[in-house]
Please model this.
Amino acid sequence: EEATCRVIDSLIRLQEGEYQTRGQASDRSGSFAEAQRLALDVLHGTNAVSSRRKLYSYFQEAIRLQPQGEVLLRKCARDGVRIADSRPISAGTLVFASHGSAMRDVPEPDVFLLDRPREHYLQYGWNRHTCLGQYVSPVIIVESMIAVLGLQDLSRPSPRPLCGFWVTRYD
Model:
């Protein structure tokens, strides 16, 4: 699944220092080492529930930084609708909604933070337009994160692909 690749890619970018963090003292910032430790905790049966819960926060932030399907094209359903303080939109008008860039319109957009408010995460839509995949996809992706982060020597091939990762050892 593309979203899983994007999350793993984002975590490797975190490891490579592409995203800002607040250092070791902050519980708010994530680190690749912590994500890997959480995955190993789950694999070893230690603190599995709390580790999965925190890995879900890693998933949310990782997909915010490397979203799948960054834009939506929609038709306006009725005359007079406004987006924020825009002029009224006519029924049938195509509207280009860029939720990928909207997730970067947040305080400290380049910092990998684990405790952002729910409204900063738009990858599944919002309110009545929320995708039903919001319930299944995170479970699959977090379990995939656990499996991949549990591997040793996780790194990229050279040259770096658009989305991908490479494992040099399986033991």
